[in-house]
Amino acid sequence: MTGAGRTPPERPQGPGRAEDAGPPERSGGEQRHHRWLTAVVVFLLITIPAGYLVISALQSRDSGEEKQENAAATGLSEGWPSKVQRRIYDVWIPPYSADVAFYERNSWRSSAMYVQFITSAEGLDKFLGTLGADRDDLDPGRVTISREEAGPVGWRLGPGAQWSGLVVDQKDPLPTLDVTVDLDNPAHPEVYVLSTITP
Predict the structure, then answer these.
(1) E strand or H helix at 36, and its extent?
(2) Three-state DSSP class for 115?
(3) Strand, helix or coil at 121?
(4) What is the DSSP letter of 192?
């Protein structure tokens, strides 16, 4: 029996009661600190890789622009033109020539190939011989390639060198060859050739 003055026994707390609700909620200050820390971490995760990407892109662009500027400054490709190009433009290069470089341009009005090389005295004589010429045909002090013509390849054929030159005119469709030679070092003359074909 249950008396009127007895208190009922305590009921067991079921799930969802206060005792099982987990850790107490954070205070307002702790929540603000947690949000600030999360924001900083997210900001760093986003901006650091983005910074690397920006730097990499700038370096790549600068490198590409530098290569383009260098190419525009000279226009020349190091090495020998192909045998086909040499035959078309009637440019023979002596064996064992040094610093060989060339550039070809084409338009509806004309096609041209620029060639430069350093050879020996004997090599120069043989080169001139392929053009039906010799040393006596070189005009001392004559530069046969104008500044405008030399512009695309950055040649500077102005004062300050012992220039000699000749022009080889041939009947179409054979090319016209403007030859300018730097004889500052007679043992190793520098030869500049502009061969032009006009359709």
Answers:
(1) helix 28-74
(2) strand
(3) helix
(4) E
Of residues 156, 165, 195, the one with CA closest to residue 183: 165
Q: What gap in Å lies between CA 175 and CA 198, rounded to an integer?
A: 7
Report the 10 Å Cβ neighbour count for 73.
Answer: 10
Cut 0.70: pTM above it: no
The three-class DSSP label of residue 168 is: strand
Residues 6+ apart with CB under 8 A from 13: 19, 20
pLDDT for res 43: 62
Compute the distance between CA of residue 139 and CA of residue 189 in angstroms, rounded to an integer: 15
Place of tokens 């002090």: 141
Strand partners, 24: none
Tokens linked to 117: 């090389």
Query: How far apart (Å, rounded) are the C-alpha atoms in residues 114 and 196?
Result: 9
Per-residue pLDDT tens digits for 5-29: 555 555 555 444 444 455 555 556 6
